[in-house]
Specification:
- The complex is a heterodimer.
- Chain A is about 75% helix and about 0% strand.
- Chain A is mainly alpha-helical.
- Chain A has a single domain, classed as MetI-like (MetI-like fold, Orthogonal Bundle).
- The longest helix of chain A has about 35 residues.
- The model of chain A has no long low-confidence stretch (mean pLDDT about 85).
- Chain B is built from 13 helices and no strands.
- Chain B is globular, with a radius of gyration of 26 Å.
- The mean pLDDT of chain B is about 80.
- Classes of the chains: A mainly alpha, B mainly alpha.
- At the A-B interface, α5, α6, α9 and α12 of A face α1, α6, α7, α8 and α10 of B.
Chain lengths: ~280, ~350
């Protein structure tokens, strides 16, 4: 609780959280005041921003603000889902390996090391290119989560293994608490702040991965995301036509969201690790 | 014998480990594209099969099946057939063995898109471009980022207050988005740099001044778009690493002794550098992924562009060839760094002996 209060006193945390809240508002509250329509052609292709269409239109003549807001929602959704999957699997694997030691630890460490070296972007390309139909947002988030959990596993394992010598764990063991009981009630709570930081970084990297995979044309088929918007603008000569409104807002939003998460992460690092403070 | 040669043992275990990783990567590379259960020959046939009569289409299909190793062939190269005349399909495990054997020979099969062309030939023309773009950029970005990060940690104050948020912002920009903005500003609006390609249209790659200067001119934008983001994200890692090192006893002791600032900075840099080196190796995969997309933005004639066209045309052999090659490069880079660290880091050296 005290840590939480400390966080609220940190200006950089407030700034990051503020940025994030603003994007959340843009994604979920703004649509109540601005009619969102990603289908109807409201004007000519690549119409510049005007009073009725604040960010102009895309290559089909669809209102850009609607597309951006919808894209932001999708990107946040993919980011959070991928973050939850990656952090969930990674944390479970990490604390289990760190706590158990022995051959279980060896195997999990081996698997993590194996998958950390193989570029996850490449695996992402391979899977996405083979799944032509039904490449939904959730599926993409799942694939991203399953290819990036190794990073969480590795960092959580290191933290967990530093905890196992604590007395309260020995006590719990004497009391006959099972392995999973110890993991969930006696180790995980101590790592919560750490896991949360990992989670935040995983969301950020999930958003970036989605943008990257959509950028090369392997994004979701059924929905608009910030990455697919960039891809469409690239494919339809927005650069050459000087239609900056087709890609600058999308690129800017990705950057702002990821930046907000990075700032939150570093400010938390500063609070949890007093050494960084000055 | 290995007991007395800790370094040799270290190298051997690492080699074995990377060989295992390589096998894993090849396996993924083979099986993942086959998840979708789409048969490459069917895709190819829908493209070329139109207008052919049944017999010609069947002959063509069998030729393709043979070419991609999907059917059994006897010693003379003729198809094995079942009793009703259909070709015998090769079981997947056998295809996998053939695939590994072919890969080891450096043969990645035939491209669908540019049909009779070999994947290895396409890769051969693309690889130098990717290498020339990414290798210097990543290394330079890493070095500059580390120096800036170390300075920020050491000086703190206003320098750090400006540099740190700025680096954080830079590392949040996707490589390709930054590339797009650069193209828009410098190539489209100001027309200072060319927007796309690796060299001017009329030139033929060769060792002459015209080609070379054109290549350098086209190099500038993609270089900066990767370099700046790269330097920014490395600076952040180095900064926190150095702040950690600054709190250690040896720095306090050195300060107490009154050792010159430059000397302390040198020690600090050296010690904080090693984890950064590991970091570089580990994140190399992610960087190359990002940089590949940068190539696509600039239509740079490297592997990224090859992958993009391959994806758009469902050219699986080409996708697989490129991905495998990139994976192997990343593995090799990791291996090199691992071995280097084994020699550079006294702690790892001691660990080898200590057992």
């Amino acid at each position: 609780m005290k840590i939480f209060l400390n966080l609220l006193k940190t200006p950089s945390f407030l700034f990051g959280a503020g940025c994030f809240l603003l994007t959340l508002c843009l994604a979920f509250i703004f649509p109540f005041v601005y009619p969102i329509d990603t289908v109807t052609r409201v004007g000519l292709p690549y119409m510049p921003p005007s009073a009725s269409h604040w960010l102009g239109t895309d290559h089909m003549g669809v209102d850009m603000v609607s597309l951006i807001v919808t894209g932001l929602r999708s990107s946040l959704y993919v980011g959070f889902l991928a973050g939850i999957i990656a952090t969930g699997i990674g944390t479970l694997m990490g604390i289990y390996a760190g706590f158990k030691g022995g051959w279980q630890d060896n195997i999990i460490t081996m698997v993590t090391n194996l998958f950390i070296v193989i570029p996850s972007f490449i695996v992402l390309i391979l899977i996405s290119s083979s799944l032509k139909e039904g490449r939904s947002l959730a599926l993409i988030a799942g694939i991203i989560g399953c290819t990036t959990w190794t990073w969480s596993a590795r960092s959580v394992r290191a933290q967990a293994s530093s905890l196992i010598a604590r007395d309260h764990i020995a006590l719990a063991r004497v009391n006959g608490t099972g392995t999973f009981g110890i993991l969930l009630f006696h180790i995980l709570p101590y790592l919560m702040s750490y896991v949360f930081m990992v989670f935040i970084l995983q969301i950020a990297s999930g958003i970036l991965s989605e943008a990257a995979i959509s950028m090369i044309g392997l994004g979701p088929y059924d929905s608009v995301s910030l990455g697919t918007l960039l891809n469409e603008s690239m494919k339809n000569e927005a650069l050459g036509d000087g239609a900056w409104w087709a890609f600058v807002p999308a690129a800017g939003l990705i950057t702002i969201v990821v930046f907000a998460f990075y700032v939150i992460n570093t400010s938390m690092e500063g609070v949890f690790n007093p050494r960084l403070r000055k | 014998m290995l007991k007395h040669h800790p370094t040799l043992r270290y190298i051997l275990t690492r080699s074995l480990w990377y060989f295992l990783t390589f096998l894993m990567a090849v396996t993924l590379n083979f099986f993942l594209p086959r998840l979708g259960a789409s048969n490459p020959v069917d895709i190819l046939m829908t493209k070329v099969g139109a207008g052919l009569d049944t017999k010609a289409a069947q002959e063509k299909e069998e030729a393709y099946l043979k070419e991609f190793g999907l059917v059994e062939v006897d010693g003379n190269g003729t198809l094995l057939r079942t009793s009703d005349g259909r070709p015998v399909r090769t079981p997947i495990w056998k295809q996998f063995c053939n695939y590994i054997a072919m890969c080891l020979k450096g043969d990645f099969g035939t491209s669908f898109l540019n049909y009779p062309k070999k994947v290895s030939d396409i890769i051969k023309t693309a690889l130098p471009w990717t290498f020339a773009l990414q290798f210097p950029t990543i290394i330079l970005g890493w070095l500059v980022g580390n120096v800036l990060g170390a300075l920020a940690a050491y000086k703190r104050g206003i320098f750090d207050k400006v540099l740190f948020p700025f680096s954080l912002l830079l590392s949040a920009v996707p490589f390709f988005a930054f590339g797009m903005l650069l193209v828009y500003q410098f190539a489209i609006r100001w027309e200072i740099f060319p927007a796309m390609g690796g060299y001017a249209g009329g030139l033929i790659p060769g060792f002459n001044l015209a080609f070379f200067s054109s290549a350098v001119y086209h190099y500038a934008l993609p270089f900066f778009s990767i370099f700046i983001v790269q330097a920014g994200s490395q600076a952040i890692g180095m900064r926190s690493m150095c702040i950690y090192e600054l709190g250690t006893d040896y720095v306090k002791y050195a300060k107490g002794l009154g050792i010159r600032e430059n000397k302390i900075l040198y020690y600090l840099f050296r010690n904080a550098m090693l984890p950064q080196l590991t970091g570089l190796a580990l994140s190399l995969g992610a960087m190359i992924g990002g940089a590949l997309i940068t190539e696509m933005i600039f239509s740079y004639p490297g592997l990224g562009m090859a992958i993009l066209t391959a994806i758009q045309g469902n050219d699986y052999p080409l996708i697989q060839g490129c991905t495998l090659l990139i994976t192997v490069c990343v593995l090799l880079a990791n291996f090199t760094v691992d071995i280097l660290i084994g020699f550079l880091d006294p702690r790892v050296r001691a660990g080898q002996r200590g057992k």
